[in-house]
Each structure stands twice: as structure tokens, then as C-alpha cells.
Amino acid sequence: MVGHVVALDFGATSGRVILGEVGPDQLRTATHARFTNRAVSVRGCLHWDVLSLWQGALDGLTSAIREVPTVSSVATDTWGVDYGLLRDGQLLGNPRHYRDERTDAAMERVQSLSTQTEHYAATGIQFMPINTIYQLATDAAEKRLALADTVLLMPDLFTYWLSGARVAEITMASTTGLLDVHSRQWSDTLLNVAGVQRELLPDLVVPGTRVGALDPDVAKQVRAESPIEVVAVGSHDTASAVTAIPMQPENAAFVSCGTWGLAGVELENPVVTEAARTAGFTNEAGVDGRILMMRNVMGLWILSEAVRQWERDGDTISLPELIEAASAVTEVMPVVDVDDPRFLAPGNMPRRIAEWCTEHGVRVPANRAEMARCIIESLAQAFADAVLSASSLGDVPVQKIHIVGGGSLNRLLCQRTADRSGIPVLAGPVEATALGSVLVQARAMGHISGSLDSLRDLVQRTHHPVTYTPQ
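RE: above sequence
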């Protein structure tokens, strides 16, 4: 029997509501809403506008149910690390944005109590100032945490609003720097280091858990007339995206490319060696107990910010035309370190890239086409480096690189990643994150069955990637 499920897919720059039609030989999707996810700055603090996202989700869910009244389930995935503080079931304020520069003091304090070596051995998580542990330590030090009785990670916040169930889905929990990667339980030691009471965090659930029925008030708003189950999927968007990659993990690597570029390999067990730590690799939970050993590198954020700056300067930018112009550049462009912290916060990206080039004694791109080519070459090199390092550290002989997400539509980026790595690139599916959510929901609801490999086989039979051969 074919079933219908809905994926609420919130990326760091946009949200989507996607209706999935799934059966043993069928996997189709239709987009019912697409909306911008913009950071909001208030008195120097950067926030997420979660109520706008929630309204966008409700509008899209209403549209999907209008088309298919027999929708059986709904699930949420989001970007990583961020969270909401609640008391008595009420959100205490708009969650802070991970690009808000507020964690420096907390990082120093946490690392004075738990060294990077100790922390990495326990969690396997890459050290970045955006990590949840540092954000929570900041909230604890500034007394905000004392006001809350619950901390819900971003997808779990939407799950709570949908169902009333307070859970912590494990793939998202693994982004926090507070989950023991070996026991897959919250680490009491690290919670104490961060100043976080264990009672603030809900119990962990795995992807595929049916957490409860759609809340009656929500059901009324979206005009649902038949029961709808709320399901926990791989709620970190990367975990859902990798679920839908039609790959053979024993000889393939992945790049989930959107705002960020998550590049690595899928393993059975974490790699928490000193070499992996110093190389900047993270070990996050995937669907069905897999481990995603990857490097969290810059993604299309840096190009999007450059475009936003040019538009702030008064020009209208067509991204396809910009990429075409970049493809025509014949001069060799510099490769900048896209993981330099200066590129993390919103702002004038072309100026920052020019400053980096000047400081490192390389030619500054002379125009927008060259600047775009410089960015794409730099991203391609970062992806290639991460994949080759993951191959070595994870002992995976990579013969194919699968690029999914928005980056799979960037033909120049895909080709240059193949060229710079020397490995063929298979691009697509674009909506891998939503597909991963749809597949896990459909399996939980009994519309399909089988292992993760079976889910990927369904993707392979219904979606066809574009191949880029190294040149």
C-alpha cells in the first residue's frame, strides 16, 4: 500500500514542507511550502525567528493535508546545535543563533575543566564555538538557564509543539558535545562541566520512534480529519540527508552541501583517535545506529553572503548567471581557507575574502565572476581535502563522492570537487534531507520495510544522480 507522510525540513537559511508518497516501488515528493529562514539581530544578539518557521510549517502542512487527507505522519528535521529554553511548556524567548558571537569565555571555561583530548575521546565531536555545550555553558553562566525547566533542541522543539511530547532525538543530540558517543547516553561528566542539570534534557529516542499523535489544537489548525502520528526521524538534517544517499558506505564518501558542507564517510563505529581530533573530524549519530565521521566545513553560506552583499550594494544578482560567468573565468583563482573564523558571521564576504588574499600574498579576485570562482574553487578544495582525510582516517577506500543538497545543483562546484579530489562525483538528490525524513517515517508507519540499505535501494531505483568525471 502506498502511504503519505509530511517532512518539515528546516535548513539554516530556508524551510520546506514536503509531502512524500511512498510504497515498495514508489518514492515521490511534492513541495507544499518554501520559506526563508532569516536570522534576526536585536540589540547585538542574533536570534532565530522560530514563530515564523512554525507558521510556515503549519501553512505547508495544511496544504499537504488538503491535497491528501489521509496523511499518516509528520516529522521535523533542522540544522544542528541550537535549542530553545522552556518553562512550564512555554518558550522563554527566541532561540539564539549559532552565529551569535557569545561563547568565547564559555569555551575557555569548559576546556579548562575538560581538555580537548578528554572531551573528544568521550563525544567524538569537532571543536567549534557554535557547539551546544558552549552555548549552554554561556546561558548557565549568565543565569538564563536557571529560568528554564526544559531544554529542547531545535527539531525537538517543533516535535513538542506538534505532539506535546518532550524527547531528545539522538542524531540531533549527537551534535551537542554532551552525548557520549560510545554509550549513546547523555554524559553526566560533561553536563556538570557545562553547568547543566540533567533534568533539563529529555530522554533520548532513536529515529523511527512514534512519539505521539498530532496535538488536537494543531490538528484543528491544519484541518486534519484523520489521525496523524508525529515521528522522530534523523532530526539533524545531515543524518536525514545521508539516509537518502544511494551509496555503498564501504567505498563511498558523502558531501551534504547546503549552508554548511558536511563531508565524510559512514561507519559502524566512531573514530576518536588523536589524528581524527587534530584533523577536525566529528562523529555524529546516523540512522540505524550508523556513525557519520565527517568534517563540518564551510558550505554555500559564503557564496550566499557574497551575493547578499552585492545586492545590499544595489545590484540584482542572478545566481545561475553568476555561476556561468564564474565557469568562464580562465585565470587561476586563489584557494582561500573557507574555514577561517572570519567567514563565519554575517557580513561583507567579498571584503573579507579580499582581506584574506592580501594577508596571504595572493591575487585578489578582480570582479564578481572571479570572486565567485574563487569561492567555488575554495569550497571544492575543502570538500576534496575532507573526503580524502575521511577516507584515510576511517579506512574507507573511497571510489565515489555523493554530493546532495543544494550544492548538487552547482555544476561547477561538483565538477571542480571531482577534479580536485580525483574521484568521480555523483550529484543528487537535491532534496535528500526531506527524502530521508520521508523514508524513515514511511518505515515507522509500515508503508515500507527493511534496512537502511533497503531504503537507499528505493532511492536508487527512483532517483538518478548526475555523474561528474575528474578532468
